[in-house]
Amino acid sequence: xxxxxxxxxxxxxxxxxxxxxxxxxxxxxxxxxxxxxxxxxxxxxxxxxxxxxxxxxxxxxxxxxxxxxxxxxxxxxxxxxxxxxxxxxxxxxxxxxxxxxxxxxxxxxxxxxxxxxxxxxxxxxxxxxxxxxxxxxxxxxxxxxxxxxxxxxxxxxxxxxxxxxxxxxxxxxxxxxxxxxxxxxxxxxxxxxxxxxxxxxxxxxxxxxxxxxxxxxxxxxxxxxxxxxxxxxxxxxxxxxxxxxxxxxxxxxxxxxxxxxxxxxxxxxxxxxxxxxxxxxxxxxxxxxxxxxxxxxxxxxxxxxxxxxxxxxxxxxxxx
Amino acid sequence: xxxxxxxxxxxxxxxxxxxxxxxxxxxxxxxxxxxxxxxxxxxxxxxxxxxxxxxxxxxxxxxxxxxxxxxxxxxxxxxxxxxxxxxxxxxxxxxxxxxxxxxxxxxxxxxxxxxxxxxxxxxxxxxxxxxxxxxxxxxxxxxxxxxxxxxxxxxxxxxxxxxxxxxxxxxxxxxxxxxxxxxxxxxxxxxxxxxxxxxxxxxxxxxxxxxxxxxxxxxxxxxxxxxxxxxxxxxxxxxxxxxxxxxxxxxxxxxxxxxxxxxxxxxxxxxxxxxxxxxxxxxxxxxxxxxxxxxxxxxxxxxxxxxxxxxxxxxxxxxx
Lengths: 320, 320
Known about the structure:
The structure is a homodimer. By secondary structure, chain A is mainly α.
C-alpha cells in the first residue's frame, strides 16, 4: 500500500502500530468511566416527578457505544487534560446526544419504535414523558458544563457552553434535523446533503473534538486542526450510518433500517450508490491501512479513529 | 386599611404612590425593548432550515405580556445593572419560556390549539417543526447567556447558565410539568399542588428575580430576598392562572379554558374553591392597597408587582 495520506494533518504522521482490539478495549473502558460519571451527574429517580428521571435514565443507560464521549476523552487526552474534567464534558455531550435521539424517535419525527435493540423512550414510557425527558437531558448538559467541577476557569466553562449551544441549536444539529424533515418532500443534491449532515451530526462531532483543546486552553491552531479532523470523521460516520440503513439488517444496526429509502430521503448512499458511498468513505479514510471495509459495520470508523488520532500525537508533544 | 404586611421583606416598606397606568406603560416599554433584543439575538430565517427559524419567531413574536423579561429588568434595575446586559438575560428567559409553551401545547402534552389568541406552533406549522423550534429556543437561551456581551465576567455568565438550567430542568420546570401530567391520574393535595407549582412556574420566576443580583454581583442576602419575593409572586401568578382557567373565557384568557377541570387535574382552585383561591391570593398580596381583585384578570398581578418591587428600593440605595 502506498504511503498514507493525511487529510487533516498532512505534516504529522506516526507509524506506531495500534491494533484494533486495543481500541475496542479503550472504548469499552471509556464507556464504563462515562457511565460512572453519568450515574453521578444525573438525578436519581425521586419525588413526585421521578418518572422523568426514570425516562432520562432509561434512554441514556441503553448500552450505547459512547462514541462521542470517547472522542471527547481521546482528544482531551492528547492535551493531558485531567480526566474528571473531560469525563464531565463527555457526560454532558452524551446527555445532549441522548435527548436528540429521544426527540428524533418521536411519532411526529422519525417515528421509530426501536433504538439500540430496545423500545424507544416514547414506547417504553409515553410521548409526553419522552418529550420531557429529552428536554431535561438537553438542559442538564448545560448545567454540567457550567459547574466549577468541569473546569476551574469560568472562561473555559462559558466557551464550552457557547460552543455546545451553537453545535446543538438551529445553526447545527436542530437545523440539520429540520432540513432532513424537509428533504422528504424536496430531495437534495450531493453538496446540500453534505451540508445537511455537517449540521445534523457533524456539528456535535466537532464539539466533541474541540472540547479537548478548549479544556486545555490550547492554541487556536490546535483547535482548528481538531475541528478539521472532526469534519472528516463526521462525514465518514454519516456515510457508515447511511450504508447501515441501506444494506444493513435490524440486527446489525440495532434499529429500524431502510427508513431513508421508504421516506424517499436523499442520503449520500442514495446519491452516490452503495459502491460510490463506500469509495467516498475509503477516500476519507484512505491513509488508514486497516480501512479495507470488509463489512459495512462500524469497523472502519474505529480504524479511522485509530489512524487519525494517532496523527494527533503532535499536540501532546507540543504541550508537554 | 391596616399597615401593609410584607411577606418577603418585613423591614423594607416604602409608601411612595405608583399608579397602575405607570406600571402598564413601563411593561409596554420593556416589552418593546425585549422584542428589539430578541430580534437581534434570534437567527433570521435563512438557509435550507429556515422553517425552524420561522417557527421560533412565530412562537416568540406572538404579542406576549413579556412578564418574565419585565421581572428580570425590574429586579436588575434595583441594582443599577446596565440595560443591554439585563435585556440579554430577559431575551434568554423569554426564549426558554416560549420553548416551554410550544412543547406544553403539543398534542401529546396539553393538546392546545390556541395560544395568545392564535393557532399554536404545531397547528400553524406541524408537530415536528414545533418540537424542533422548542428545542432550538431552549438551546439558544444558554447560548445568549454564555456570550461575553451578557456580562464581562465569565463567572457571572456561568452562574446564570447554571441557575437557569436548574430552574428549567428536571428539578424545576420540567419536573413540575411531569408532576402535572401525572396529576391527571393521581390528584394531589394542597401542599403537593403548591410544590408542583413552585417547580412548574415558580422556578423560572425565581430565576427572573435572581438574575438581577447575579448580574450585579450583589450579596447573598440581596439574592435570597429577591428569591423569596419571587416565590410569593410565583404562587400568586399560578392562582391567577388557575382562576382564569376555572372561571375565565377564551377571550379573556387568550387560550383554551376549563382544561384543568376537563382533565380532572387538581389545581389550587379545585382544592380551595374559587373564593378560597381568591382569598389565598389576597393573603399573599394583602400589603398591596390595589389588590382588591375586582376581576380575575392580571390586574392584581401587576398590583402585586408594584407593591413588592417598591419595597425593594433598598438594594439600590445600598449599592449606590
